[in-house]
Amino acid sequence: CIAELKETFNVKMWESEEIAVPQDVLFSEVEKADALLTVVSDPVTDELLSVGRNLKVVANMAVGYDNIDVEAATRRGIYVCNTPDVLTETTADLTFALLLATARRVVEADQFTKEGKWQSWSPFLLAGHDVHHKTIGICGMGKIGEAVARRAKGFGMEILYHNRTRKPEAEKEIGAKYCSFDSLIGQSDFVVSMAPLTNETRHMFNAEVFQKMKSTAIFINTSRGAVADEGALYEALEQKEIAGAGLDVFEVEPITADHPLLKLQNVTALPHIGSSSIDTRMGMIHICVENIKRILSGERPKTLVNTSLLETK
Ligand code: 8YV
Fold this sequence. Notes:
The protein has 13 helices and ten strands. It has a seven-stranded parallel sheet with strand order 6-5-4-7-8-9-10, sandwiched between helices. A three-stranded parallel sheet has the order 1-2-3. The protein is an alpha/beta fold. The relative contact order is 0.15. It has two domains: 2-84 and 277-312, NAD(P)-binding Rossmann-like Domain (Rossmann fold, 3-Layer(aba) Sandwich), CATH 3.40.50; 88-269, NAD(P)-binding Rossmann-like Domain (Rossmann fold), CATH 3.40.50.720. Residues 39-40, 61-64, 87, 272, 274-275 line the site of 2-keto-D-gluconic acid.
């Protein structure tokens, strides 16, 4: 796909996967650029946008766009595009994989076996928590939340959800039950965050909330790290106020090996790979490229965040 862009445009790519693009390089490239292709760990600030005098589009390779100052982009007439839909099922798969792995201690068991520690049978060897027929509480019932709920239905789970708006189709078709945040927190065996990061959702999972969860509850987060207060989560896990956590996302990414949450045996940690299947990542790049091509040739983008720009242009 990028090759396709190269046919028509002069493409500058930061190739290193180990080192993030240095700010001076980024700013000097953005100064000349018509389009910017970003990922969730790239902060697109008003300051960065202000140097992009030719900038017409920021194509974010993600459905979430909390890394971008959308208000500033809109004010400057710059389109912000994301990649919804294409990643829904893949992210729901990973969410469920993380839920199962955390509940059944799959990663720990793999390490145990590979380290040659399996020397005898014992009845409670790596005994975990059941998933089937337990209660799952989904916070944020967007498309990915619904896809997670469909998987939960297959496991015979009781499905609770909390969302800004009711989802009658999910209630009718999947049997998900709407409830208040407090009631979901108190009843769920698995509390799953699928909420986007906004001013309202930042640290919605705080010390008080973790205290209200069951002591056997498992917290799963594949949305954005900052919806949870990591200090409070650490305390809750360490004090066994909750039983475990499966985390694909962190407040500041990437994390380093000395991150406190990594010291806990009851944490399964992943490097933000929710949408990372080959097919889906190819699909996401394709949408970004298509959006850039369309905008630079004066056409409507496929997926636009700041749709108000279409009314004013
Ligand atoms: C990102 C994500 O796409 O879509 C999102 O919002 O968090 C992920 O799927 C991925 O981290 C690349 O930016």
